[in-house]
Amino acid sequence: MEFTVNQIAYLITGEVVGNGELKINKLEKIQDATEGCIAFLDNLKYENFLYSTQASAVIVSNSYVPKSDISVTLIKVENSRASFSLLLEEYHKIISFIKSGVEQPSFIGNNSQIGNNEYRGAFSYIGNNCKIGENVKIYPHVYIGDNVSIGNNTILYSGVKIYSESNIGNYCTIHSGSIIGSDGFGFAPLQDGSYKKIPQVGNVIIEDHVDIGANTVIDCATMGSTIIRQGVKLDNLIQIAHNVEIGQHTVIAAQSGISGSTKIGENCLIGGQVGFVGHISIADKTQVGAQAGISKSIEEKGTSIAGTPAFDYKSNLKSYAVYKKLPELQKLIEELNNKLKQMSL
Amino acid sequence: MEFTVNQIAYLITGEVVGNGELKINKLEKIQDATEGCIAFLDNLKYENFLYSTQASAVIVSNSYVPKSDISVTLIKVENSRASFSLLLEEYHKIISFIKSGVEQPSFIGNNSQIGNNEYRGAFSYIGNNCKIGENVKIYPHVYIGDNVSIGNNTILYSGVKIYSESNIGNYCTIHSGSIIGSDGFGFAPLQDGSYKKIPQVGNVIIEDHVDIGANTVIDCATMGSTIIRQGVKLDNLIQIAHNVEIGQHTVIAAQSGISGSTKIGENCLIGGQVGFVGHISIADKTQVGAQAGISKSIEEKGTSIAGTPAFDYKSNLKSYAVYKKLPELQKLIEELNNKLKQMSL
Amino acid sequence: MEFTVNQIAYLITGEVVGNGELKINKLEKIQDATEGCIAFLDNLKYENFLYSTQASAVIVSNSYVPKSDISVTLIKVENSRASFSLLLEEYHKIISFIKSGVEQPSFIGNNSQIGNNEYRGAFSYIGNNCKIGENVKIYPHVYIGDNVSIGNNTILYSGVKIYSESNIGNYCTIHSGSIIGSDGFGFAPLQDGSYKKIPQVGNVIIEDHVDIGANTVIDCATMGSTIIRQGVKLDNLIQIAHNVEIGQHTVIAAQSGISGSTKIGENCLIGGQVGFVGHISIADKTQVGAQAGISKSIEEKGTSIAGTPAFDYKSNLKSYAVYKKLPELQKLIEELNNKLKQMSL
Q1: DSSP state of C67
Q2: What mean pLDDT comes out for the span A8-29?
Q3: How confident is the model at residue A307 (pLDDT cuts 50, 70, 90)?
Q4: Close Cβ partners of C136 (under 8 Å, ≥ 6 residues apart)
Q5: Contact at CB, A175 and C159, closer than 8 angstroms
Q6: What is residue C342's three-state secondary structure?
Q7: Catalytic position from the list B175, B209, B242, B249
């Protein structure tokens, strides 16, 4: 993506001092900026970079008084940090939604509808009887099975796979390689030591404003639905098993896993590489330390836990502090034991 | 998928009471059922739902005596729970194998054969010299390299990647995003601190009745074969390294990893997020707790272990119980030490 | 791939004794070799296999004196082990780079260039303004976004996804299902408990000679670049978050995860299922045990650590040895306590 300095100044209501026709294709920190970059100066710790930068433009606040001549093109605004943030958001929105039209070859089954302003990349696949909203961006190699519904303004990056019967909401983003609706992992043991598959006939429901990272997996329900409530943020390589429900605005870091039928509350914060056993219930606003293993339901809101199996976060830190000194402690105990033996003699 | 109540009644040898022409497109629990659903009543705890349900049909046992008038269409059978289970299985079988024919564009290389009743989705890719059996379902975006053999009745969901030389058995199911036959992770250190790749020229053999979840990876052998024996069930996001062998009917939960050349016995049960070091051997019927780290071979059948590094499951629980009280224990030891010091004075 | 014994003998400068026209399609250990295989004999522990093997050819050293008649075809060389290693490497190089040409349908956007000796598999996708070097192998279902640069001699296996703006070096190998450049996981909490996405506008830079396994994810930087330095080796299912930097010749085993902005030094060895918190710095030549959790920066080169949170490797082993005996230790402490109480009476 390429913009002129003038176009950016217009977007953030700023005044250009210098060459407004320069081309900008990257947003960067002032200390890292090179040609084609736009940066900003707010913290005066970085002021010297303003005089040496290779950036094509720098956003500064109106109140900034230069120490000496400046060669780089400036955009002067009310508040340089706020304007740069705004620019970041607008830039990200533009690059996220810029693709449109239908590239060929792409595949769409019978009775499937898709709203205006669509992007369907080459080699994307949409099955039968799908209902897809407006401004939906379907990148190359996306697979959408039969009877899938997708809301408006949702982005599916290259290689996302959505199994049949799934429902995806509005304003969702799903990154490459994530799988929605694969079979739950259910097998019943037979007499001869082998296993019989438990049929998985449910689906996945993803509500609005859900972000899902790359290569994450959400299994369908055995019956009913695996549900990801609105505003949930899932990182990469996460495992969500059948019939799990994740409450709204809960955030889960990479490589965590949630076993079947567990219900996670609202506004929880869950670290990376955490594991939850199945069939438990986690209260709202629970915070879980990285690599913890949760083996029991948590009933009190706002609990913080860590460890495997997890218990109170601070208590775990205290136990761990002693754990690190266990060899010394063992030695002391042995000394005490010997002393006592001698005293008993 | 849509069936009439009459079609379902025929399948489960039941008698329709009510409108047999109603359309059914979902199997659901009676407490969650909506229009288009079929449910069943067995446990009388749920009896009241029979009178209020929006389901289009409910399966009941012949012996069931209604308390009052019922408006929902019924299918009366010998045993409602057993009939519903049968229906689930049949339904799952139908939806799993319903796809057939070849969608275009799809790619098939030279000298590759595929049996009757195939499904090859659009954008599926089959290399050269492949032998693929009957009733095999290859979903869109599946990649099959050269010289691959696949048995009968196997399903590869969208985005599965099978490297060249792999062998897949009969009645296998592999879910989206799983990778079979990527290079083993082998690098030899050189004098200058860099690494030289150890060539990986082996393959992967997957026997019959193996189920593999989504985004799981099975590396090829350095030489010879990485082998997944018959009836093995692997969940999502699992790592199987080069030259691993997994014994028949072993079940491994999500996000576990098995390092190179380790041999897992038959009928083992392995929890989620477990890790095994390489070059060890695990006895049949071993049970491993979630998040355990297995650093040594296990020789005795039926062992249960937990922890990192793992040891006996119950002993680990006992140690952990003390771990949680370590700060108190430390305090007690210090008190004893002080007392003894005073006594020695 | 198929070669004659004569072709192989020519490659390794050996002398054929027997039928040089036999076809070879596999390299195997002598104890596992079947028809079509070539094996080697070095360790005399395996000598008996030479007389019973079904291999089509065996490489032996000139110095080897047979005990009796040999029916299998031999290739005699100076050093059988070294020649077999050479053969493995050559064979692997050939099968890795043998694909060439452009299969259809494939997609290439505007202004994208690709060097000589390319392979572009069917259903591969290349966006706009990409610069791709010579001898690059792009397998089916690979996605390459806009403005991506890729060096020479790089292989992208089926299903690799490279987001826009990424830079990939020379002699890199990326296995199936790996994702380069997905959004970093950054969300700012709002007053109402929901989250606002922090725009991710940076990219990923992968230097030369980097190997990446299957289904690994490398997120783009928030601003600037996530950087994988030359010679880094990443296994399968690894998570690399935004703005991470991994120093040259560092090796990371499967299912490990590195949180945002953490810098890993050069020549580190990191076990499987390890987790690093964000914003820390790890010294060169650090060694980390499997499943460790690293919560603090490591400043001293060559440190070995283990545990969660991780500390010195050997100290952790010692603490863990006591942990396993904690119930006994607790009992001893209680006995001491009782004795002291009695003595105090």
Answers
A1: S
A2: 94
A3: very high
A4: C114, C115, C118, C119, C150, C151, C152, C153, C154, C155, C156
A5: no
A6: helix
A7: B242
Lookup: tokens for A33: 């900026």
Q: Which chains have 3+ CB pairs within 8 A of C?
A: A, B
What is the reported pLDDT for B345? 64
Residues forming beta bridges with residue C282, ordered by sequence position: C264, C298
Helix ranges, C15-107 (H): 49-52, 80-97
Inter-axis angle of helices C313-324 and A313-324, nearest 10: 100
Q: Could you give the CA distance from residue A108 to residue A142 in angstroms, rounded to a whole number? A: 12
Encoding tokens for residue C159? 């299903």
Higher pLDDT, A65 or A259: A259
Report how far residue A285's alpha carbon sits from residue A264's, in angstroms, rounded to the nearest whole number.
Answer: 10
Give DSSP secondary structure letters for C265-287. -TT-EE-TT-EE-SS-EE-TT-E
**Coil/strand/helix, residue A230:** coil
Q: Which two tokens stand for residue C28?
A: 């195997």
Q: Decide if B254 and A239 are in contact by the 8 Å CB cutoff.
A: yes
Tell me if A251 and C161 make a contact (CB, 8 A cut-off). no
Q: pTM (2 decimals)?
A: 0.96
B278: Cα separation from own chain's centroid: 23
Q: Does B284 touch chain A (CB under 8 A)?
A: no
Dmax (CA) for chain B in angstroms is 96
Q: What is the mean pLDDT of residues A261-288?
A: 98
Residues of A in Cβ contact (< 8 Å) with B141: 123, 125, 141, 143, 159, 161
- Most distant CA pair in chain A, distance: 96
Beta strands in C18-156 (DSSP E): 23-24, 26-27, 37-40, 57-61, 73-77, 101-102, 107-108, 113-114, 119-120, 125-126, 131-132, 137-138, 143-144, 149-150, 155-156
Residues C162, C164, C167: CA angle, nearest 5 degrees: 70
SS (H, E, C) A117-178: CCEECCCCEECCCCEECCCCEECCCCEECCCCEECCCCEECCCCEECCCCEECCCCEECCCC
Interior angle at CA C216, CA C210 and CA C217, nearest 5: 100
Record: contact A253-C185, CB cut-off 8 A: yes
Rounded distance, CA B106 to CA C220, Å?
A: 32
**pLDDT confidence bin for A66, thresholds 50/70/90:** confident
Taking the CA of residue B32 and the nearest CA in chain C, the distance in Å comes to 29
pLDDT for the residue C157 = 98
Q: What is the dihedral of CA B114, B116, B117, B122, to 10 degrees?
A: 30
Residue B343 has pLDDT above 90, yes or no: no
Sequence-ordered list of residues with C-beta below 8 angstroms from that of B290, at least 6 positions apart, any chain: A275, A277, A293, B253, B271, B272, B273, B274
Q: What is the ipTM of this complex?
A: 0.95
In sequence order, what E strands does C183-224 have?
A: 187-189, 195-197, 203-206, 211-212, 217-219
Quick check: B22 and B57 in contact, CB under 8 A?
Answer: yes
Please report the residues numbered 101 through 160 in chain A whose beta carbons come closer than 8 angstroms to any beta carbon of chain C. 103, 105, 121-123, 139-141, 157-159
Residue B208 near residue B226, CB atoms below 8 Å? no
Assess A15–C contact: CB distance below 8 Å, yes or no. no
d(CA A230, CA A237): 20
Residue C16, pLDDT score: 97
- Cα–Cα distance list, B245 to A229, A232, B186, B241 (Å): 40, 38, 17, 9
For residues B77 and C182, what is the distance between their CA atoms, to the nearest angstrom?
53
| Residue with token string 């949680």 | B324
Q: At what angle do helices A326-344 and A313-324 cross, to 10 degrees?
A: 60
- DSSP annotation of A298 reads B
